């Protein structure tokens, strides 16, 4: 019982940190980057992408990004997204390691889609 309580509290804290991170990203102008033509890079699998995605987004799964990053233009701005935000952080870091300067984590695609639709 004790471990279940600890796991529940840990999950809740992780969720709160994630939500706070999303607000910080928006404060830093993620919505403006989208307005200015940032490319949305969805790093979920093709199967996940097929169940729903942001119109106009590019789908390169995290598992393929190490090979396929050469298809992307390092001079462009990219916003990575996935189902919850964890894979998109990994993709953001991977692209930055490969010389991409303008890459930002957009978190969960459903949240990012809401931001886009507000505009």
Automatic annotation (TrEMBL):
InterPro entries hit by this protein: GlpE_sulfurtransferase, Rhodanese-like_dom, Rhodanese-like_dom_sf
Top-level taxon of the source organism: Bacteria
Pfam families according to UniProt: Rhodanese
Domain Rhodanese: residue ranges: 34-114
Coiled coil: none
Entry-linked CDD domains: RHOD
Protein name: Rhodanese-like domain-containing protein
């Amino acid at each position: 019982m004790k471990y279940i309580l600890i796991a529940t509290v840990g999950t809740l804290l992780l969720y709160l940190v994630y939500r706070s991170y999303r607000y910080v990203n928006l404060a830093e102008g993620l919505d403006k980057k989208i307005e200015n033509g940032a490319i949305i890079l969805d790093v979920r699998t093709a199967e996940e992408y097929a169940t729903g995605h942001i119109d106009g987004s590019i789908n390169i799964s995290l598992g393929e990004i190490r090979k396929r990053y050469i298809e992307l233009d390092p001079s462009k701005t990219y916003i990575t997204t996935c189902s919850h935000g964890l894979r998109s952080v990994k993709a953001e870091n991977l692209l930055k390691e490969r010389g991409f300067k303008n890459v930002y984590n957009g978190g969960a695609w459903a949240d990012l889609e809401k931001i886009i639709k507000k505009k």
